[in-house]
Amino acid sequence: MDWTSRPAGPLNGVVRVPGDKSVSHRAMMLGALAEGVSHIHGFLEGEDTRATAAVMQQLGVRIDALANGERVVHGVGLHGLRAAAAALDCGNAGTGMRLLTGLLAGQAFDSTLVGDESLSRRPMRRVTDPLAKMGARIDSQEGLPPLHVHGGQPLRGIRYTLPVASAQVKSALLLAGLYAEGETEVIEPHPTRDYTERMLAAFGWPIEFSPGRAKLSGGHALRATDVRVPADFSSAAFFLVAASIVPGAELRLPAVGLNPRRTGLLQALRLMGADIRVENKGESGGEPVGDLVVRYAPLHGIELPEALVPDMIDEFPALFVAAAVAEGVTVVSGAAELRVKESDRLASMAAGLQALGVRIEERPDGATIHGGPIGGGSIDSHGDHRIAMSFAVAGLVAGGPIRIGDCANVATSFPGFMELANGCGFDLGVVP
Ligand code: S3P
Fold first, then answer.
1. Among the four residues 231, 234, 293, 342, which has the most C-beta atoms within 10 Å?
2. 345 annotated binding-site participant
3. Entry's InterPro entries (predicted)?
4. Best mutation site among 168, 232, 338, 342 for ligand 1, i.e. most ligand atoms within 8 A of its Cβ?
């Protein structure tokens, strides 16, 4: 499915983005392992998180879907899952597969995890190596999915320092740690999102954590609880950039999750001169939330502080569009992880922006983007949801229409993106 994004604007109105993907995956997994019935409010109805729900159902968990985003998870307890009859399909979701690998390593039965073409190219040794140190047995071909996770392996806790900052790897180890004898401790080179830690605590599991460090021991129980999922900052990101670059724009994004480990783009855009205010600050399900109010402001290029990279790891495609429109040069470094996301995001963005006449120099761990006019043209999203949505944003200010190839995967993280975008002033359509 290809899209066309045409120059449009100004953008106005209130944009309610769907629930957080990271929180939705975790709520589904912990609800399934808990004792009792958990309600999830605002569950992301995306393909990634629905795949995780389907996996938990295959493992014997009853999940009722009430209305849009309302799920009732009938937890089976830590040892209540049962073997699935078939392979467990994580679709496009790296988070789903990596967290499930840790969770399944502690079960009494074998499981096989598979994914789509993109997920089948993503590195899994970063989870299988430390899990093997804990005693897990996981087979793969050259560290790529499918993963065959052997059950019945006694796990023991380890102290592990992550070589790369990754919340997925940290979370996989903590989930395996629920089943391990002794303490599991994870130390990060730079703090990453701490949803697993916060949610384990909310489900009553004793855990010690502080930025960059988490420690728990096995042998406790999870107690069912209700989870309120905040709106996904990463989905809000496209509208933050869109309103920042379209003259006359003003958008309000209500009740967006503002966990500091997610909001690096807010800081980056402000350094570039963006006008973004946070209003109605509050808390939802233990997470800071607030309304983001964003107005057009002329942007200028920056040298992005490397310390911000992990806090905006999913927002680089959107940032690159802001940088392409900004006056002057933006330099990104320390971001080699972008090469192992749903696509190689440094390569996908560089190729796409070049096709639109933007000057960009790609480096192994980043890029230098020269701001200036963006032309119309054709680009390939490489089946990557965030690349597709970023070029939809670029189309707003391009010299002509941008045709974006292969947009179906937008539904993995942001169902209804096109309707919301067109509702506030985009001119986005499906190519017949
Ligand atoms: C996620 C962690 C990040 C992020 C992904 C979601 C999570 O991945 O890119 O979209 O929910 O833990 P890494 O752990 O690979 O950095």
1. 342
2. yes
3. Enolpyruvate_Tfrase_dom, Enolpyruvate_Tfrase_sf, EPSP_synthase, EPSP_synthase_CS, RNA3'P_cycl/enolpyr_Trfase_a/b
4. 168
Out of 228, 258, 281, a domain closes at 228
Do residues 30 and 222 make contact, with C-beta atoms less than 8 angstroms apart? yes
Q: Domain total for the chain? A: 2
Report the phi/psi class of residue 360: left, alpha or beta, with left for phi > 0 and alpha for psi in -120 to 50.
beta
Flag residues of the chain having pLDDT under 50: none
Would you say the CB of residue 95 lies under 6 angstroms from ligand 1?
A: yes
262: its two tokens: 């997610």
Whole-structure pTM value:
0.98
Q: Is 389 touching ligand 1 by the criterion CB < 6 Å? A: no
Task: Tell me the DSSP string of 2-34.
Answer: -EEEE-----EEE----B-HHHHHHHHHHHHHS
Q: For 109, how many CA atoms within 13 A lie in the half-sphere containing its CB?
A: 13
* Boundaries of domain holding 394: 3-19+230-430
* pLDDT at 284 (0 to 100): 85
Active site residue 314: yes
Residue 260: CATH number of its domain: 3.65.10.10
**Ligand 1 pocket member 48 (CB < 6 A):** no
The predicted structure's pLDDT at residue 239: 99
**152: helix, strand or coil:** coil
Q: Is the CB of 263 under 6 A from ligand 1?
A: no
Annotated ligand binding at 21? The verdict is: yes
Q: Which helix (H) or strand (E) is 279 found in, with range? A: strand 275-284
The angle subtended at Cα 370 by Cα 428 and Cα 380, nearest 5°, is 40
Same domain? 137 vs 248: no
Cα of 327 to ligand 1 centre, how many Å? 31
Residues, the chain: 432
Half-sphere exposure of 395 (CA within 13 A, CB side): 25
